[in-house]
């Protein structure tokens, strides 16, 4: 995100956007929005994403679909919670302190960034 902002500021000062404040502001806003969207999407799909896995599972069953029994078996075989927690630990967003999981400073920073973005686009703070 910082690299994109520096590029836009440099272009505004020396390049084709020279002295075009509104264009530079628009470019900064677009770059920031794309960066935040990437962070949100990458965090969601980098590990075992429940939504993506369910969609792939249902797609594999084609037009005839999956029965409730097959769906229950699939969910029992895919401990999404564990894989997601392991991904957060590996990324340094969550850490272990004895028997407890705690949010780390990197996790706080990401959470504040995503929360600010969600407030900006007027999304519900609890459900997304």
Please compute the radius of gyration using only Cα atoms. Answer: 20 Å
Figure out the total of helices: 6
Shape: extended
Cα separation of the termini: 22 Å
Which secondary-structure class do the elements indicate? mainly alpha
Strand content: 5-15%
Spatial strand sequence of the major β-sheet: 1-2
The helix/strand order is HHHHHEEH
Question: Total strand count, please?
Answer: 2
Helix content: 55-70%
Arithmetic mean pLDDT: 76
Main beta sheet: strand number and arrangement?
A: 2 strands, antiparallel
Uncertain residue ranges: none
Describe the protein.
The structure is a single chain. The protein has 128 residues and is mainly α. It has a domain of 35 residues. 67% of the residues lie in helices and 6% in strands. The protein contains six helices and two strands. The chain has a two-stranded antiparallel sheet. Helix 1 runs antiparallel to helix 2. The longest helix has 25 residues. The chain is extended.
What topology emerges from the helices and strands here?
Elements: H1 2-14, H2 21-45, H3 50-60, H4 68-77, H5 80-90, E1 94-97, E2 100-103, H6 105-120
Antiparallel strand pairs: 1-2
Helix pairs in contact: 1-2
């Amino acid at each position: 995100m910082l690299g994109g902002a520096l590029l836009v500021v440099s272009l505004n000062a020396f390049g084709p956007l020279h002295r075009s404040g509104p264009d530079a502001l628009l470019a900064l806003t677009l770059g920031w929005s794309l960066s935040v969207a990437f962070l949100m999407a990458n965090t969601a799909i980098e590990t075992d994403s429940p939504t993506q896995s369910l969609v792939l599972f249902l797609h594999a069953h084609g037009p005839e679909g999956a029965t409730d029994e097959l769906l229950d078996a699939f969910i029992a075989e895919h401990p999404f919670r564990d894989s997601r927690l392991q991904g957060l630990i590996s990324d340094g967003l969550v850490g272990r302190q004895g028997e407890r999981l705690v949010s780390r400073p990197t996790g706080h920073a990401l959470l504040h960034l995503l929360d600010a973005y969600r407030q900006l686009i007027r999304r519900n703070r609890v459900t997304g």
